[in-house]
Fold this protein.
Amino acid sequence: MSYQSIFRPDLFLGQTIIVTGGGSGIGRATAVELASLGAHVVLVGRTLEKLTAVHQEITQMGGEASTFTCNIREEEQVQALFAAVLSQQGVVHGLVNNAGGQFLSPAEFISKKGFHAVVETNLTGTFLMCREAYNQTMRDHGGTIVNMLMENWRGFPGMVHSAAARAGVENLTKTLAVEWARSGVRINAVAPGLIESSGLDNYPEAARNFIQEVVKDIPFKRMGTESETAAAIVFLLSPAASYISGESIRIDGASSLWRKTWEIEDHDNAPQPFDGFQIG
Ligand code: ADE
């Protein structure tokens, strides 16, 4: 397997970039693309097996990576993660806070514990990763951070916990962009809409069937790809975005803007899906 990025080879040569949730889905695609562009990618997650599989993919491509298990909800684990990565790599140039999790449920059935668990992972975990990146390396050396949102422009019925947490991450991103500008830190976010990602496998079959119906309401009439999301993250990490901070990019085929007042008949004129994974 190889990865065909649209970015310049060696764009991230000599850089160390942490990708949380790097063992699957958008995190894996981002990690593979960054490694294909010369970065040393630090794959972080809770399950070593998944990280090891991506590590192997990257090594087979001729790329460089390492793996660290860490629960981003645990402050001490996050502190220990940065200490370990820095003792191995010296500096962390980039951080992709991709790790997250949620479950589908009407709000009235979500317990306090369930709500807190999602907020702790998606919001508090992201905060801890940003803070530790800053305190342990980026305050002195600068750096670039990309956070993960969801397309929650009009709220997100069925996922009130995650939608609220990601709204928090969006605002955190704006705040830190200002607080840390003086240290040469840029921090942005991406907000994926419906992405054909391995993350969808975690939803019940009925939900996956329903998704096919939802696609009809996307102006592009298709889901996005993991590679299309990874490319936006890579752009934000790159020097092409060096005057962009505190910003969020929606990757959603214009779905967040659509309303029923404008019918979009079936078409196949959307830009061809971009997939950087080349088999063989
Ligand atoms: N991926 C999903 N949840 C996570 C967590 N709490 N820590 C690290 N990676 C994760």
